[in-house]
């Protein structure tokens, strides 16, 4: 029997699922259309498109797992479905976190200004740096999957033994705790890297402001604006990432309590804000995506007005997206 709390949380999660898919799908669609038109795509757009696709996969897996756990709990018990669900979530979560972190590193290397020889070497080879980071993180992903498989195999072997229902449920709770703990540990790494990048960006801005004040120049130059714009995006990203990370941590902690199912469900609803809400940061922050977004909103508004008035509609406030800065 589904409770009122579960029904309410299911409605909220469904809304987040729709919003997240619209945002991530919009980014992927705009970048793909631009790629087809120009026959080329920038490194930043490549990362952003891959990030949007991984977020769509993560949203679908979380939602499917949610509906199974609420309405078809017995389906999670068989080992094969449990393994596919766990590994699928691990893979999409990995790429969601590391692609977002790689995007932060990319813009940090492009914007920051340090005279250090190592930094300049990395700055000149930013594409290779990002490629190497993503390749190295694949080692972490393989290690993460191997640990998950090991714990799942142990649980399946114990599950085959003739045990009481209480023992099986206890072992399943232990498995869930261990797998969630493993994924949380691997999530700490990209979160810590992103936080370090943010602090280095602040330090770079401080050094830049100190330099232009010494030279008696205008403090609102192009580099300062780029730093501030990047920091705003980083703050929004880190806040959402912190919410996601805390939701994982609280989920692990909640396994000690009898009401763990309700707490875990609440944490899932809070945590999914990260993949569902983050795409709107680049949509509102990047000129190309913002222009396309307002163009779509303007088109939808005119269509709605036309349907209501049942006559040709022309709104002078609808400015072409090419003119929106």
- Could you tell me the mean pLDDT? 82
Q: Would you identify the regions where 5 or more consecutive residues have pLDDT less than 50?
A: 319-325
Tally of helical segments? 11
Q: Radius of gyration over alpha carbons? A: 23 Å
- The overall strand count is 0
* Residues in β-strands, percent: under 5%
Q: By helix and strand content, what is the structural category?
A: mainly alpha
- Helix residue percentage: over 70%
- How far is the N terminus from the C terminus? 52 Å
What can be said about the biggest beta sheet?
none
Spell the H/E element sequence: HHHHHHHHHHH
Overall shape? globular
Explain what the structure shows.
Helix content is 83%, strand content 0%. The longest helix has 50 residues. The chain is built from 11 helices and no strands. It has 325 residues and is mainly alpha-helical. It starts with a helix and ends in a 16-residue tail after the last helix.
Task: List the defining traits of the structure above.
325 residues; 83% helix; single chain; mainly alpha; disordered C terminus
Reconstruct the topology from this structure.
Layout lengths: L3 H35 L4 H29 L7 H33 L5 H8 L1 H35 L4 H50 L7 H33 L5 H12 L1 H5 L2 H6 L1 H23 L16
């Amino acid at each position: 029997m589904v409770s009122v709390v579960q029904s309410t949380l299911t409605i909220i999660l469904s809304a987040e699922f729709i919003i997240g898919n619209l945002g991530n799908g919009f980014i992927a669609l705009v970048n793909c259309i631009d790629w087809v038109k120009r026959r080329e795509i920038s490194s930043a757009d490549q990362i952003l498109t891959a990030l949007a696709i991984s977020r769509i996969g993560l949203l679908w897996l979380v939602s499917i797992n949610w509906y199974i756990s609420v309405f078809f709990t017995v389906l999670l018990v068989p080992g094969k479905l449990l393994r596919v669900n766990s590994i699928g979530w691990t893979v999409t979560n990995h790429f969601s976190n590391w692609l977002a972190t790689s995007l932060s590193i990319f813009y940090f290397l492009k914007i920051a200004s340090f005279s250090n020889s190592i930094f300049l070497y990395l700055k000149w080879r930013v594409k290779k740096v990002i490629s190497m980071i993503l390749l190295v993180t694949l080692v972490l992903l393989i290690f993460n999957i191997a640990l998950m498989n090991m714990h799942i195999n142990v649980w399946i072997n114990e599950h085959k033994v003739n045990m009481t229902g209480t023992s099986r449920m206890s072992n399943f709770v232990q498995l869930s705790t261990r797998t969630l703990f493993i994924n949380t540990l691997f999530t700490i790494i990209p979160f810590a890297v992103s936080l370090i990048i943010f602090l280095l960006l602040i330090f770079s801005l401080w050094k830049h402001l100190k330099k232009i004040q010494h030279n008696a120049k205008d403090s609102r130059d192009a580099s300062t604006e780029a730093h501030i714009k990047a920091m705003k995006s980083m703050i929004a990203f880190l806040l959402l990432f912190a919410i996601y990370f805390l939701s994982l941590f609280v989920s692990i902690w909640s396994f000690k309590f009898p009401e763990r199912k309700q707490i875990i469900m609440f944490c899932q609803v809070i945590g999914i804000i990260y993949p569902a809400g983050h795409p709107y940061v680049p949509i509102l922050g990047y000129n190309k995506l913002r222009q396309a977004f307002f163009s779509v909103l303007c088109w939808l508004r005119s269509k709605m007005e036309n349907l209501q008035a049942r006559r040709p509609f022309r709104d002078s406030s609808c400015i072409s997206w090419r003119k929106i800065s």
